[in-house]
């Protein structure tokens, strides 16, 4: 539910200065439909001749041409937390091949990869976030236990030391750019990830002509996504709610929905067409979440649907407060009510137009320029 994969038509002009050079594009573990995987695909599309490496790919993923690490042949592929301490070693023993340019798509340790000596190989890294469970345990509970403080400190030191050879960083948001500066003491260019805004904007008339009579929540049903708060907000404002997605909190959220005074409907794992229809039928997307970037709010705005969410993280970039949505510094559901009542002040045309700046075409243009500048260095 975090992202939707674009088709081959989204590919831009390949990075010309890399045409005659050996290139590797690497990524962490490879799942089915994550936003980071889509970024990896789009980067690789700019360098069609590149070799593509991943730690492992999920069993149900049909993605040809991926070269998996030796970690994929071990039971550790089933447990990311257990595999984490080994990842820096894996990236240093990935292959004996040497490349002229290596581009990493990193949210853990992929940016530490070595496929050639730094004086001969140019290393570039697109960062979704410094590993949150290592650097930001308040965001990711997997690293928050007190007993994990010593190993977390050791991994932080290792992360900095093993990434000194990276010549250029790109960050997926200003939020992540700030973390790179704070944790690694490095600068990064902000290049927002690609969103298939054309698909969501180009809905059939039957989708466009809905009455927009409910509020919408979309995403994984996990604690930090605050779906319990979304239910409480709908209850406060007295509007029906649709919750789309899936996740381990489903039973808990259904119990909360039963206690609400408004109708709450669950849409489990809707496909892209169904999700688009849900966006177009919603009065607003409720998104009280602190995300690094957040693709779902952009998809909603591409459908002319405003966003009501937190004044934090990626929403500071993806939502224009007072024009394409409303942002609030609060997790109290009562503070969202006045903003929902102000929704008639906003226009769908302005909201859709704003979403266009996060298109796949825009990403292709910017990532190609970044690759060419970094490769020339």
From TrEMBL:
Its EC number is 2.4.-.-. Keywords: Glycosyltransferase, Transferase. InterPro entries: Glyco_trans_1, Glyco_trans_4-like_N, Glycosyltransferase_grp1. Residues 34-198 form the Glycosyltransferase subfamily 4-like N-terminal domain. Residues 205-343 form the Glycosyl transferase family domain. It comes from the Bacteria. One of its GO terms (molecular function) is glycosyltransferase activity. This is Glycosyltransferase. It comes from Plantactinospora sonchi. The lineage of its organism: Bacteria, Bacillati, Actinomycetota, Actinomycetes, Micromonosporales.
């Amino acid at each position: 539910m975090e992202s939707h994969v674009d088709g081959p038509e989204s590919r831009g002009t390949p990075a010309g200065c890399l045409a005659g050079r050996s290139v590797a594009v690497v990524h962490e573990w490879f799942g089915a439909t994550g936003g980071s995987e889509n970024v990896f695909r789009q980067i690789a599309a700019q360098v069609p001749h590149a070799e593509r490496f991943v730690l492992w790919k999920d069993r149900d993923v049909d993605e040809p041409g991926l070269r998996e690490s030796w970690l994929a042949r071990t039971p550790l592929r089933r447990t990311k937390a257990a595999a984490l301490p080994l990842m820096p070693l894996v990236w240093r023993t990935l292959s004996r091949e040497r490349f002229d340019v290596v581009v990493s798509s990193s949210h853990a340790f992929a940016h530490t990869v070595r496929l050639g000596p730094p004086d001969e190989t140019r290393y570039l890294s697109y960062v979704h976030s410094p590993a949150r469970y290592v650097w930001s345990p308040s965001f990711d509970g997997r690293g928050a236990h007190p007993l994990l403080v010593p190993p977390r400190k050791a991994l932080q030191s290792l992360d900095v030391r093993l990434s000194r050879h990276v010549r250029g960083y790109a960050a997926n948001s200003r939020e992540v750019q700030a973390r790179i500066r704070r944790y690694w003491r490095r600068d990064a260019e902000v290049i927002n990830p690609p969103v298939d805004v054309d698909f969501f904007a180009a809905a059939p008339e039957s989708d466009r002509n809905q009455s927009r009579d409910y509020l919408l929540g979309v995403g994984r049903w996990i604690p930090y996504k605050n779906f319990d708060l979304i239910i409480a907000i709908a209850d406060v404002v007295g509007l029906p709610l649709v919750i789309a997605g899936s996740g381990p909190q489903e039973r808990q959220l259904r119990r909360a929905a039963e206690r609400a005074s408004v109708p709450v409907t669950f849409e489990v794992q809707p496909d892209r067409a169904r999700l688009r229809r849900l966006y177009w039928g919603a009065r607003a997307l409720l998104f009280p979440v602190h995300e690094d970037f957040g693709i779902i709010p952009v998809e909603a705005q591409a459908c002319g649907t405003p966003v009501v969410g937190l004044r934090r993280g990626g929403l500071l970039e993806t939502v224009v407060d007072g024009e394409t949505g409303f942002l609030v510094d609060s997790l109290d559901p009562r503070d969202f009510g006045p903003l929902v009542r102000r929704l008639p002040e906003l226009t769908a045309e302005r909201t859709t137009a704003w979403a266009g700046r996060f298109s796949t075409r825009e990403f292709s243009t910017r990532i190609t320029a970044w690759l060419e500048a970094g490769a020339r260095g």
